[in-house]
Amino acid sequence: MSAIEITFMLGKILAFFGIVVALAALSTLAERKVSAWIQLRYGPNRVGPFGILQPLADGLKFIFKEEVVPDGANKLLFRLAPAMVATPALLAVSVIPFSFPVMIDGVSHAMSIIDVPIALLIILALGSLQVYGILFGGWASNNKYSLLGGLRSSAQMVSYELTLILSILVVMMLSGTMNLTDMFYDQETGQVLLWTIFKFPVGTIAFGLFLIAAFAETNRHPFDLAEAETELVGGFHTEYSSMKFALFFIGEYAAMVTMSCLLVILFLGGPTLFGLLVGIENTWVRALLGMGVFLAKLCSFLFLFIWVRWTIPRYRWDQLMHLGWKVLLPISLVNIVLAGVWVIYIAPTWGG
Amino acid sequence: MADYFRDLIAIGPELILCGTLLVVLLVDLWRAGRDRASVWWIALIVTFVSCLAMVQIGSLYHQAEAKVDGMALLPEFLALASVYTLVTVCESYYRGRDDWLLGTIVLIGTALAGYRLWDLGVDVFSGLDQETAYWGALIEGDGLAIFLRALGLFTLFFCALFAIFYKPFLKGINRNGVMEWLLCLIGATLGGMFLVQTTNLLFLFLALEMMSLCSYLQAGMLKGDRRSAEAGLKYVLYGSMASAFMLFGFSLLYAFTGELNFPAIREILIGLSADGAIGDAEGLLLWVAILGSLTGFAYKISAVPFHFWTPDVYEGSPTPTTAFLAAGSKAFSFGILIRFVVLLGDVGYGARILELLAWVAALTMTYGNLAALRQSNLKRLFAYSSIAHAGYMLMGIVALFVITKDTTSGQLTAGSLNVDGAKAVLFYLLAYAIMNLGAFGVLIFLANRTGSEEIADIHGMGWKAPMVGGTMIVFLLSLTGVPPTAGFFGKYYLFVAAIQSGYGWLVVVAGLNTVISLVYYFRIAKALFLRGEEEAFVEIQGGKVFSLALLFLALLTIYFGIFAGGATELLQEVGTSLQSR
Amino acid sequence: MDTLTLMFLLIATITIAGSLITLWSKYVVHSVFGLMLALLGVAGFYVLLGADFLAVTQIVVYVGGVLVLYLFGIMLTPPDRAERNVKLIVFCSLPAVAGAMYLIGSARAMEGKWLPGKELPPPPGKHLIHQVGHSFLDKDQYLLAFELASVLLLVVLVGAVYIARRRWEASE
Question: From the list B177, B256, B284, which residue is nearest C115 (CB)?
């Protein structure tokens, strides 16, 4: 490994984790700003211009808060749980390509921290690990609201994971790869119609399913029953304070960012922009522009997440399960069959 | 497509069983939702699609197989039509009283699978098919496989038949579980049928687990019966432990040879021992590997150190399941055990294992018979008797090789294959399946009337139902091994094979055991007939079809007790084909 | 000691420690935590052996699926049952001791010359998934096993649903 490659690698690690953590922090601000905007308020506007330094102030506040470990809590698991939520969410960033590959000394380097053929599966595996933090956190708090919140949230995640995986499977069938870089290249041959979302009906249905499942996976509104304030106080993190609480928060928002990244790559062609960028000779320029496009798409999804939260009412518990098992799951199974038909009969006629 | 046909035809019976499974599932779903219009439409579409598929496959089959004349797949077509008719008739005439519908569908499917198997068998035994490895050598369609699959279908047929008449499946809460039970029964048989065909360690494990998992489920399926739940749980716990040991053994075998297929493993082991590359440490490793693998089989056939589950599971399971465990599951496990021992018995440290197995056989039969003496519950008694019978059959496995001991070095070596051992085990499996199915059938017949399975409750029942009582006497005689019944010839062949291979002492033990077994089998006969009719509280009527089935089994027992020649000739051929390995 | 050995030792420690926690901890939930460690450790072994796909599948299926269901079952039981009987723990350890002896025996045997019958193929690297996929769907490899597994899952699913189902009286 040459010096430039090592530098490149370190740069990637710093940049991508920086981007995700910053996005996670900024989306807490955005959450409050957008909600204020929707409700005709101002939102935070004291710290820095337009309140832009608010997340920093929040972080400082968290650090100086007292750490409370409730009496009768299971100390070990209580302390481990926040880390178990935040770690997988942040780890998942390492396989996501944020832009086009660049050439260094004639060798193509993907713009993800590690470039593996089974990137998609790794993200799924890490996503499934997040359940533990929530379950253990809820159980270890020795509080019935926490336990119920933890159980609800994990039941929800397990149920919707099926739909999530099945809709990803469709994308995998359409593109024939599990490597995320190859996946957005597959959608990029100069035709708008080759983004997965425009492959009607298969890709569109898969997109819809994935979007709904992503909301449920990240415990976002309208599926945030795990922390339904009116029923469960604060759900699994009722008893948490200080940095531990902040870790849950970071984990949650990082998961949201990861899901948005996946949405962009799987369905909206990642950093591609209607074939405009692929032709650029200088790979570094191309990568930079691509990253800009990627981040723009990403932010629009983050906005969607927030927007939905402040406009749509919360589901009831039984409605949630009904939707997951009796509506989304059958649809996604049928969609897989449709995808098979697509791959065998329709895709060859498109020349893609 | 055409190159798949050869392999697809080889697993035709299994495919038909899979189809039966789906039909049962569909019919049950249809019955659950028959008042909805959408279900009618779906039923119509499914029927149409399956008919179309039959025509399509039939014509393809016709093209691929030159020797097929007339209409290919005609029997399948007839079966589909009869199932359709049955469902329609049930819908119009027997609505609400059609508990026999699903069982009958399984019977039709099994008969059909039997027909296909017959086709295959004719080819194999007349020597048409020389090359018998299919699906990338995952399975082997040789004579042994054909015979044991036929035995499995036979068992499936009668277990399904018993289930139609088994009272808990007709009344009370378990009525709703018949579909699930039948699915698990078919699944277990499917697993077993693949188990006896396979020569690949991975596939072997998959098939064995399929058989085991479906059996665990069946054992625990009686709702509201604590013994059934206990049976299911015990079976799972012990079973998973045995599977773990077996898997560990397999992994060592793979690590040792780098191969998964039996013949390849054998070749490598022979090569290594010819090179003198197997020293003490390697020998120990191989020993551990084979011992671990055998643990799984020993558990399934309930040989002695792994027999603990047998009485509880036999007692708690629904009786048709018990019949399946005793006849089917055991036959399949012995089948794969024969394959395993034939391939690995005379390489490396196989001789030591065989010597160990001889002791296991002696212990198993003695323990089973002694423990059976004091049982008051009929199913428990038969459980111990099945342990004893496993001991007898192990004798035939041991007799597969002649062991010679080098007097100077004390080194054990296994000589050439003694096919009489395989022949004896297979014949015994056949006889045992027939008589055990019969005995459990009688048990169901009686328990349907008395509502209990204790010996004390069947006093004098023989006089109330002379035909069924009489068949029970035949089965008991056969289980003991008295001529002219199939059990007699079974024991006779086993003893001959054991003596040929120089296990005189084992034959003596087995002979003594036979005498012991007479005691408890006689207790049942005594309870049935030597008590007065007035002691039986229950009035017996009806059950014509069921008694006829039992009579058929009894006649079969006697038939094989008199004309054993035809079957043994066939089995001789099976044994000889094993020699080529 | 090279990096690979170090990694192996680390993962082995995690796996064994996890298994022991599973066996011996007083709280059942801690046992599940231990089992999670053990299963993750096994996934680590797969990674060391170059079987990435298997490792990830192990995590998705066992850690993310099966174990969560265990945890569910345990959390829904009353808390006074969540602590384990010490006698039971000792009893549970007996098979572990037997297994350990068995393992030590075979480890002793492995001190002998290891006898690979043939050279194992090199790890497939980047085309791993393609190879796995092809061997599952190739008629001359494991197609039959793959299909049989699907039938197995169907049957067992139906049976398990029936067993887990509440009694029928309630619904009728």
Answer: B256
